[in-house]
Amino acid sequence: MRSLQSLRFLLTVGLAVGAGTFTGCWGAKDQAASSVDMAEYRKMMDEQKKQQERLEAATSSTPELTAEEHERKGDLDAQARNYPLASLHYDKALKADPTRNPVRLKLGQVFLQQGLLDQALTHFQDLRTREPESAPVHEGLGQIYLMQGKHQEAEKALTKAISLNPASWQAHNLLGLLYDQQKRHAEAIASYHTALTHRSREPNVLNNLGLAYALSGNYEAAIDSYEQAVSAGSNNPKLYNNLGIAYVQRRRYADALNTFKKAMDEPRAYNNLGVALLGVNNAKKAVVCLEKAIELNPQYYEKASENLRIARQSVPNTTSGATASSMAETSSCP
Question: Which one of 82, 204, 235, 314 has the largest count of C-beta atoms within 10 Å of its C-beta?
Answer without folding.
Answer: 204
